[in-house]
Amino acid sequence: MSTTVLTGVCPECETDLTTPPIVPGETLSCPECLLTLRVDDIDDGRLRLRMVEVTLRDWGQ
Amino acid sequence: MRHVALVADRIGWEERRLIAAAGAHDLRLSWVDDGALCLGAPAAPALGDFDAVMIRSRSYTRGGLIATAAEAARVPVLNTAAAIHACENKLSLRALLRAADLPVPDFRLVLSRADFAAALAELPLPLVLKPVFGGMGKRVTLLRDADTAQSVYDYVEDLGHGFEQAALVEPFLDGGSSVRCFVAGRQLVASASFRSAGGDWRSNAALGNRHRRVAQGPEISKIVDAVVDVLGEGIYGIDLFETPDGFVVNEVNHAPAFRAVADTSELDIPTAVVRYLQEVTS
Ligand SMILES: Nc1ncnc2c1ncn2[C@@H]1O[C@H](COP(=O)(O)OP(=O)(O)OP(=O)(O)O)[C@@H](O)[C@H]1O
Ligand SMILES: [Zn+2]
């Protein structure tokens, strides 16, 4: 695949997004609504994004 | 080539490095969404492609349940369900460690205001109040005065639901450096000592803000070894507190972060983890 830029839409605020190469599982912050979005899948240069939590009560590291 | 599932809610700094290290050492490590496995079918078809599962869910709930279901389907899992369940509950862990004669901080289990009052009467201030189930340093509260302590408990009673009200009260071990040990298998891969700095008295990684130096020594190795004897081999972040009488084990993390200790180690942490995964799957 020669695409170096991937595109998608924020599922929360519908802003068009472009990202450098990224793989499923990685997260990014929507520049418009600031929510954390996870790449669930990439299909032909199009990102499928999902909003994910940034912290929950049962998290530990 | 062996194929291991990296089960997590996302790929963060640590997971990215683990995947890269696996690639460099002839192991395939693939991200699998911890919220999309739908386990339960006897042979765990969702995990059919994998020789083993490494759990990196930030959530204890998800990690423990996925490990239980995967083990039931006879898929090798790191960490084991038993280890994750021990780590998710600060009381269970301390009880286990204490039973094995490991040094842990003194504590009182607080389930009610009556327990809270009794703990305050038994242990001298300053004290620390922390949730039995909780992580990332959240809600860990330093109690310096008896008069504010009661108001703090108002919030526990008022805003805590069910299991969130279960708490420990323990002495504030203010000699104050904490030591984070990163373990893969049985091996102590890295250890560093932290001191809080700036605006927060807590020094855990999730809250930032601390000073750091390398920590080593036979006492640390001995404790780490004994903790692994109790929990079984695995990938752990073991937190120790330094006290005038030696180290005590504060807690153990089941999917430990390692960014903060990475540059204090002569060993490469992701490579050490990958070597351990190879050992487990060979
Ligand atoms: N008894 C104590 N005495 C002194 N400091 C403490 C005590 N308990 C906790 N702390 C401080 O608060 C931080 C968070 O506490 P603790 O590790 O018990 O909670 P946690 O929510 O499980 O954190 P994490 O998941 O980040 O390890 C510790 O790293 C330490 O700096
Ligand atoms: Zn958005």
Helix content of chain B: 25-40%
Pick out the low-confidence regions of chain B.
none
Helix and strand pattern of chain B: EHEEHEHHEHEEHEEEEHEEHH
> How many individual β-strands of chain B?
13
Task: Give the count of helical stretches of chain A.
Answer: 0
- How many beta strands in the DSSP annotation of chain A? 5
Which band does the percent of strand residues of chain B land in? 25-35%
Mean pLDDT of chain A: 92
* Count of helix runs of chain B: 9
Largest interface: A-B, 16 and 29 residues
Q: What is the terminal separation of chain B in angstroms?
A: 10 Å
Low-confidence residue ranges of chain A? none
Q: Main sheet of chain A?
A: 5 strands, mixed
Give a written overview of the molecule.
Chain B: Keywords: ATP-binding, Ligase, Metal-binding, Nucleotide-binding. Chain B: Residues 94-278 form the ATP-grasp domain. Chain B: One of its GO terms (molecular function) is ribosomal S6-glutamic acid ligase activity. The complex is a heterodimer of chains A (61) and B (282). Chain A is an all-beta fold. Chain A has a domain at 1-25. Helix content of chain A is 0%, strand content 41%. Chain B is α+β, with helices and mostly antiparallel strands and 282 residues long. Chain B folds into 3 domains: 2-86, Rossmann fold (3-Layer(aba) Sandwich), CATH 3.40.50.20; 108-171, ATP-grasp fold, A domain (Dna Ligase, domain 1), CATH 3.30.1490.20; 174-281, D-amino Acid Aminotransferase, Chain A, domain 1. Chain B is built from 9 helices and 13 strands. In chain B, strand 1, helix 1 and strand 2 form a beta-alpha-beta unit. At the A-B interface, loops of A face loops of B. Zinc ion binds next to loops of chain A.
